[in-house]
Every structure is written in C-alpha cells, then in structure tokens.
Amino acid sequence: MSGGARPGVSPDALFLPVGVLVERRPAVSRWADHVWRAVEVLEDAPEVPPWTVLREEAGRTLFFAGLAEVELHPTDTSNYKHNLEAATPLVWVILRPAAETPSGWRLQTVTVDPGEAHVHADVGADLLESLPMPPGLRAVTAGFVARHHKERGFWKRKRDQADPEALARRPREEEE
Fold first, then answer.
1. What DSSP string describes 88-144?
2. Alpha helix segments (H runs only) across 19-113
C-alpha cells in the first residue's frame, strides 16, 4: 500500500488509495426499488472505470464504485488509535446521491477516523457504511499512529473566584 504527501498539507499527512465495492440489491419495500450498500474496501483496486459492473446474480449487482483516498493526519491520531484498539477496527465509506452518475451515487469519502464518520452520519441523504479495516490499511494506520501519536493530558481549567458582592444590590448615590 503506497501513499504520499500533498503540497499545502502537513508533510507528515498520508494519503492512501483504496477502491470500493458497492452492491445494489432488490428492496423489500414498496417505497424503493433497490437498496445500495458498500460491501468491501480494496487495498489493490482493479483498473476499471468507476461504476463498472463486476458481477450480476440473483437480482444483485456488484459495482466497482471507484477510487478514494484515506487521509491520515498527525493531529487526528487519537481517533485512529481508538479505532485500532476496538475489537474490530473499521473503515467507513460514505456515498452521496449524485444525479450525474449512472448509479445515482458518488463515492464521497473513505475514512478510518470515527469522528469524521460521525459527522457524515448526520448528513441527510448520505449513505454511510462501516466495514472491517483491510489488513494492509490497518498496518499502515498503526505505523502512522506509532510515529505521530502524542498523548495529550486533560487539564481542567480553574475558574476565577467569584466575588459574592459583585452582584449585590448597591445603594444609589441619593440613598446614601
């Protein structure tokens, strides 16, 4: 798995190319004809155009949705670390509705950052799927965390001492 740096971004940031497989299957609902879901993140993607049909069987169609980049930033290592410490580390795939594509979907983002995935979970029509993190991506992410993670302590801010007389009623000058 290879990655690289980008101009204008931290030189320690890493961008890892991945491919995504998406499945369309018949819906069991009268309100929708099909159900879409991401089914796999590939470390080595096939050299085919996005939304190429890879397989059709029993009403299900498997598509290569396209390429995306998993971004790793040194400031987000705490989130990656928590993900890697989970029983099953995850990668999140976000698809966004797009009328200009034949499928009606566009591959928006692939991330290993649970915080970023959570932000996309609240967006109206986006489709968010969590999948097991592929072994190569897991190894690169773990190496990135080992190189860049710094434990940050939590310091509780001490409040200023309140002046109980500050809000007390003061006599008007005339009353004195």
1. S-EEEEEEEE-TTSSSSEEEEEEES-HHHHHHHHTSTT-EEEEEEPPHHHHHHHHHH
2. 77-84
| Lookup result for tokens 């979907």 | 105
Strand partners, 127: 95
* Cβ-contact 33, 81 below 8 angstroms: no
Q: What is the pLDDT of residues 101-159, one digit of tens each?
A: 878 899 999 999 999 998 888 767 889 999 999 999 999 999 999 998 777 766 677 77
Tokens standing for residue 58: 């029993």
Residue 72 · residue 141 · CB < 8 Å: yes
Number of H helices, E strands in the chain: 3, 7
53-62: pLDDT as tens digits? 999 998 899 9
Residue pair 65/38 in contact by the 8 Å Cβ criterion: yes
Residues 36-46: b if buried by 16+ CB within 10 A, e if exposed: bebebbbeebe
